[in-house]
Amino acid sequence: MDEQRRLHRIRPLPPFGSYPLIAKKTLVPHSAENGVLPVRTFTFAYPSDVSLSFEPAHHLKLVRPGPYKPRSYTPTSDAYREGSFDLTIKIYPGGNSEWLDNVSIGDRVTMIGPLPLPFKAKVYKPGPFVVVVALGIGITLGYIGAKRELDRNGFVTLVYSIRRKEEAIFGDELDELKQKYPDRFEIKMIASREHVEGWQHGRLTEDLMHQFIPDAPKDDIRFLVVGTKQMMKSIWSILRGMGYNQAEHALIRKRFKS
């Protein structure tokens, strides 16, 4: 079947469905000694006549059976990959992620999305220079966001902050982006709990952020800050003190307050 006929058959992913788990891969093993939680990539199948195209602001809500609140996860596979998609998740004890970790290959998992739906649309405000601040497992969205901006000819600085080197993921994927866009992509690694050769050490501070922000007019710079709510709040507090308010400089922001 030629490409035009194939695309004609494609229909959007339904907003509510169940998908079989077909693979599971460990990216970061559990280390009780260092307090490192495991991170795994879960691969789910979906019909070949369905499209899972999504933007970095979009996510899927995983529905755990029982009286549990659905949890949101950003797909980490290519937005237009056919037949399957990946969710890369840190496994927290007792949470939805631990439940998913115990799902057997072949079992189905119910999900809602991709979200946000139109009534919760987000504003995308591109700029020629983008600083992606990925805090911990926030790299799942940070990687997708960096890749999209590079594909759109932007200059991207990825600031990837974790506690220990062993918690780093997507190393091969980031190296591939660096090789593909050597003049437009920089990676700055930070470890807060140990010294790593070639990395910055400590927490993200205003002094460090000054080192990472490109020498460009402020109006041309955007930020994608991803991590826990508390982490993101802390970084935006630093950025506001440097003259970068969220309304004007966030690459992606909510249209309405929830």
From TrEMBL:
| InterPro entries in UniProt | CBR-like (IPR001834), Cbr1-like_FAD-bd_dom (IPR008333), FAD-bd_FR_type (IPR017927), FNR_nucleotide-bd (IPR039261), OxRdtase_FAD/NAD-bd (IPR001433), Riboflavin_synthase-like_b-brl (IPR017938)
Required co-factor(s) are: FAD
Q: Name one GO molecular function term.
A: oxidoreductase activity
Q: Where are the transmembrane segments?
A: 129-146
Q: Which UniProt keywords apply?
A: FAD, Flavoprotein, Membrane, Oxidoreductase, Transmembrane, Transmembrane helix
| Binding positions (FAD) | 71, 73, 90, 97, 140
Every FAD-binding FR-type domain range: 14-121
Does the record's keyword annotation contain GTP-binding? Answer: no
- Kindly give the Pfam families that the UniProt entry links to this protein: FAD_binding_6, NAD_binding_1
Q: Does the keyword NADP apply?
A: no
This protein's superkingdom?
Eukaryota
Q: Which PANTHER family match?
A: NADH-CYTOCHROME B5 REDUCTASE
What's the protein called, per UniProt? Answer: NADH-cytochrome b5 reductase 2
**Originating organism:** Gracilariopsis chorda
